[in-house]
Amino acid sequence: MGNLCCASRTNAAGETDISLSIALDHVLTVFLLCFEAAINTFPFYPPLLSTTRLVPSNTIPWLPSHIKVWEFTRDYEASLKISPHNLGDLPTWYRGVDRALRKTDRCDHFCLLLDSAFRAKLEEHNLGTSRWVRFPPRPLALFAEIKPNQSSPTSHLEELDEIPPAMHSVLEITTTNGAKLIFDGTPEQFGWSNSAWTLDKGDIEKYYVEGEVGMMHFADEEKRALKRLVLEQDQTPWETLFGRMEELLSEMNWEAFKELEDEELWETIKDQARRKFEGVGDS
């Protein structure tokens, strides 16, 4: 498939790992692009200005001193579903904050949307198995919105002191050769590199899991309860999104994808997914 004669991934230590098969790397990217198209259908108020600083420990007692807090303002005059800009042409700070804000609190939705279909696709092509797991994340950055007319110059920081980050949802993959990988749709929300969306499980446990709890399997009854909660909170768009994601993944012509070069394939997937989810966020 194009120039993917051998697939590679960089681990958290900066070393190149060539353990991923072409087919698995292909499937991972397709599912990630479909998820990103789904969440991009919702209106989004883009960041206008952002600066970063280390916050004094007495402001947020639970926050380790090395963690950066990005302070940002939003443009409430513009509601962008999909940015008309090429993020690659924009400043580094904008690209990072934009991705982080779009994916904040979306890790459960990532797993709800993809869990069953992803597991089935791995089994269909004998690529391995997957399961939904959760763990307490170790953030490298937090994001605090500076709102108009806020009560004090630091009130947006004080909101971060309410609770530490909730449990983080990801998909754990066990390949046919026994390797364990983590498929993460929303690493940017914690200031992790966007290249951390697929890493060895050992790297994730070493660099991104907080405390001694480790990774915990998310059982089927817990999934059903979470899905009911999501639908009760915001029924119309998410009910529609779940249905359209199922349709989109069933309509994918995986055999035809093999004939496309990489860039052409990714653009094809993005366009197909964008058209499938068009208008959902307006409901």
Describe the structure.
This protein is α+β, with helices and mostly antiparallel strands. Helices cover 39% and strands 17% of the residues. The protein has nine helices and ten strands. Strands 9-8-7-5-10 form a five-stranded antiparallel β-sheet. It has a three-stranded mixed β-sheet with strand order 3-4-6, with helices on one face. Strands 1-2 form a two-stranded antiparallel sheet.
Specify the structural class.
Answer: alpha+beta
How many helices in DSSP terms? Answer: 9
Report the uncertain regions. 1-10, 15-21, 82-87
The largest sheet is: 5 strands, antiparallel
Bulk shape: globular
Distance between the termini: 38 Å
Number of extended strands:
10
Percent of residues in β-strands: 15-25%
Strand adjacency order, main sheet: 9-8-7-5-10
Number of domains: 1
What would you report as the Rg, rounded to the nearest angstrom? 19 Å
| H/E topology pattern | EEHEEHHEEHEEEHEHHHH
Percent of residues in helical segments?
Answer: 25-40%
What's the rounded overall pLDDT mean?
A: 81
